[in-house]
Amino acid sequence: MSLIEQVKQGRLPRHIAIIMDGNGRWAQMQGQERTFGHSQGVTPVREVIEGSAELGISYLTLYAFSTENWSRPRKEIDALMSLLVSTLNTELSTMVENNIRLRLIGDLERFSPDIYRDLMEGVHRTAGNSGLTVQIALSYSGRWDIMQAVRHIAGQVRDGALSPAELTEDLFARHLATAGVPDPELLIRTSGEVRISNFLLWQCAYTELYFTPTLWPDFRRDDLYRAILDYQHRERRFGKTSAQVQQNF
Ligand code: IPE
Ligand code: IPE
Ligand code: MG
């Protein structure tokens, strides 16, 4: 049986998040500049979007640029930004055709007005789509997200619109950049690094983590299917015992 057929027989995650890592090492292994690795990272982005859409996954979150990545060399940041904008521009019509909704999470105010405008055009043009939601995390970090939520909530408390006793986990989550999107069931990280790197900290509280040594530019649909198959063989206990889970307590 093919990998996709196997995947279709098991329970599917509603939301998959991916830390797309290893572009620089991939390029350096071929004796190329790091930025070549970033441009070769576009193919796997297309593959995971198409693969997720075909499976009927509802949400795919891609970590494209972290808050910490602002400390990379200016030249690399600029190359990444222009790649981002040109990729979005060329992919936009395909996204519209395939009913894909683009969402951006992160501190977008840090981008130049030109880039911000280009990014938001993609969001607006796909806003009415009802298929797969692709969330791109840009200038994002989990601590930034938690802090901006805290600031917002603190303002409401100061203004008397909210009392501290009313603050629940659900209400807090509605102030995060991912508001309205369920927590990811599966988080994939490529390139062999075994860390979260300040990604969706609150949202990944009970997420299944999958690490693969494959470098991002080499990642293909079958690698996505393998990650989902691995997830399907795990027992998600949420603090309960295995016996409880099996008896559906
Ligand atoms: C991931 O690849 C892409 C971004 C962080 C923007 P890297 O650029 O981190 O590649 P490595 O980890 O240095 O190989
Ligand atoms: C994490 O990758 C961020 C993205 C993939 C966008 P990094 O390569 O920046 O992570 P660290 O710094 O090695 O943990
Ligand atoms: Mg890296």
Overview of this protein structure:
This protein has 249 residues and is α/β, with parallel strands linked by helices. It has a single domain (11-142, 183-248), classed as Decaprenyl diphosphate synthase-like (Undecaprenyl pyrophosphate synthetase). The chain is built from ten helices and six strands, in the order αβαααβαβαβααββαα. It has a six-stranded parallel β-sheet, with helices on both faces. Helix 2 crosses helix 3 and helix 3 runs parallel beside helix 5 (74-97). The model has no long low-confidence stretch (mean pLDDT 97).
Concise structural overview:
The chain has a single domain (11-142, 183-248), classed as Decaprenyl diphosphate synthase-like (Undecaprenyl pyrophosphate synthetase).
Secondary-structure element series: HEHHHEHEHEHHEEHH
The total beta strand count reads: 6
Q: Supply the CATH architecture.
A: 3-Layer(aba) Sandwich
Radius of gyration: 19 Å
